[in-house]
Design a protein that fits this description.
Blueprint: H1 2-17, E1 24-25, H2 30-33, E2 34-39, E3 42-53, E4 56-66, E5 69-78, E6 86-93, E7 98-106, H3 115-125, E8 130-131, E9 146-150, H4 153-176, H5 184-198, H6 202-212, H7 214-225
Antiparallel strand pairs: 1-3, 2-3, 3-4, 4-5, 5-6, 6-7, 7-9, 8-9
């Protein structure tokens, strides 16, 4: 199950990524692009893919595996000079279930962006049997975030559907966006807050520190996962 859902979600993300305006590949440091380490828990493999386009400063997807676990992490960060929110999706899966699946279009300047009028309807259409509680640092997420455990193929298909529809809207918003300096400072500060709150996820840090040490973990979190604009 783990590899199937990861591959399916990665395909959905890449299909939308390929339609972004003026898409360009970003360089990833060699020590972070493809990471492999043999551990007592199994082989640890991390692969990072980064792009940029008009309106988005970084389009990032990480795919990782550690023994029985498969992980997909994706965040599309806007250029603060464009009036755009942040798209994100994360999956943690083992051979039997998806223990955690979350997706959101997160605001950096309130919920006034017109994308939220459409997202509200999509969000109401999708519900999950086993919703998970948003962590205490999760105030950065919108009211339309989806966070659940997925224990069968129907639930997995629903989650893939949410990601697909959220990305449809998000890509459309990117194409419509133009450079807008009005409230750019607020969007800049909002994106910094988003990154700072994400860094409070101790689970990610503890795993990285366990296998790579504190310095490597800090560099990876600050330069790859949640780099500030």
């Amino acid at each position: 199950m783990a590899r199937e859902i990861i591959n399916n979600l990665a395909d959905i993300i890449r299909d939308h990524q390929d339609t972004l305006p003026n898409l360009e590949e970003l360089d990833v440091k060699d020590k972070f692009k493809e990471v492999y380490k043999e551990t007592e828990d199994g082989n640890l493999v991390i692969e990072n893919d980064m792009h940029m386009c008009t309106g988005l400063r970084k389009v990032h997807m990480e795919i990782a595996s550690l023994g029985p676990l498969d992980i997909l992490h994706c965040i599309w960060y806007p250029d603060p000079e464009f009036d755009l929110p942040i798209f994100g999706a994360d999956i943690v899966a083992n051979k039997k279930i998806v223990t955690a699946a979350i997706t959101d279009i997160s605001p950096v300047d309130g919920l006034d962006h017109p994308i939220y009028e459409d997202i509200e309807g999509i969000s109401q259409y999708y519900s999950f049997k086993h919703n998970r509680e948003i962590p205490t640092w999760g105030t950065i997420f919108s009211p339309y975030s989806k966070f659940a455990r997925l224990d069968d193929s129907k639930e997995i298909d629903k989650f893939s559907g949410v990601v697909n529809e959220y990305l449809d809207l998000f890509v459309g918003a990117v194409w419509k966006s133009t450079m807008n300096y009005n409230r750019a400072d607020e969007r800049y500060e909002g994106q910094i807050e988003y990154c700072e709150k994400q860094k409070k996820n101790d689970k990610t840090r503890k795993i990285l520190e366990k296998y790579f040490g504190e310095k490597w973990a800090d560099d990876y979190i600050n330069e790859v996962l949640f780099d500030e604009p």
